[in-house]
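Progress note, project year one: complex with fe (ii) ion.
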Amino acid sequence: MAYMTKEWNGIEFFAIHDFHHIELLTGNAKQAVHYYRTAFGFEPYAYCGPETGIKDAVSYVLKNGNQFFVITTPLSSSHIGSDWLKKHGDGVYDIAFSVDCNLEAYESCLSRGAKGILKPTVTEDEGGVFGKSSIKTYGDTIHSFIDSSKYNGLWAPGFEKLQLPKLDIKHTSLIRIDHIVGNVGIGEMEKWGEYYEKVFGFSIFVRFDETDISTKYSSLKSIVLRSKNWKIKLPINEPAQGIKKSQIEEYLEFNEGPGVQHIAILSDNIIESITTLRNNGVDFLDVPDTYYDDLEKRIGKIDEDIEVLRKLKILVDKDEDGYLLQLFTKPIEDRPTLFIEIIQRKGSKGFGQGNFQALFESIEKEQALRGNL
Ligand code: FE2
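Model obtained:
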């Protein structure tokens, strides 16, 4: 049964201000950077690697609006990221949060049962003091806590300005990370929901199950956790029994375990975003043309021209607070794992549950092509 609440039932053990960045591990960061620039309009920001004194990995920091993606490639098999990549392929390793104190955040989480992965560290250069610590979450994904309030340098100690040849990229109207979704195994969703409630003090504000979203083949259960200030929204999915393999099960098989399924990026003009991204060659999920036939009847009056939405294949959903527009890319690597969502909110705080049915049918067509249905 679908359920949504605006009430905050959590406890703010320590303030989590916002997403600080996400870090992706990739086999070849130099080429991945080109993709995120040309396809999504990210701009070069900072870099670390052998040239800056880091011997075993390179990291490129890219910026688009108020969001930062860090693209990292290990340079040796002994780097922790090499085993990660061997198992999962390219994907999201770290969902990092801005906090007041990385030590306080780490100790607070560990006191309630979290497992540490990077003990609180402080690094320093002429830019000031930079604090970081990390804990584990589902699969081999981690959360880092970043305290950069006393750091006035570019990004972090060890990084320099990223200089790359200029590209003529159109504005993509992408502003910030809206939410980040994790897929976990059958029967694990509640456990991870409780983890975020207990360790972070987050609150579950959306819940839906197979009675809300299912096709003949595929269904899923989902909960959404949020921070007190609404800046962090983390949906968690688990597969529900279907006749054939669900898209979540396909993900879990190819990712070899739980991990981040999609990054949703907020747009302030989704028509401009999708037009530009399509021109840039981004491959989006197909939407059946019939989806638009009774859209106005389902959604009511909206600001956008439905014929433009039909042409760009943008999806619309509504709840009692307003509506949202969204569209999902196909997987952005060869394993059918991570994809990107573009979303614009016009009042709605939802996630497009009303669209999932139409989308599932589209995803299943893709799955069948891969022989995984
Ligand atoms: Fe989403």
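The radius of gyration is 20 Å.
Residues 353-369 form the longest helix (17 residues).
No further modelling is planned for this target in the current period.
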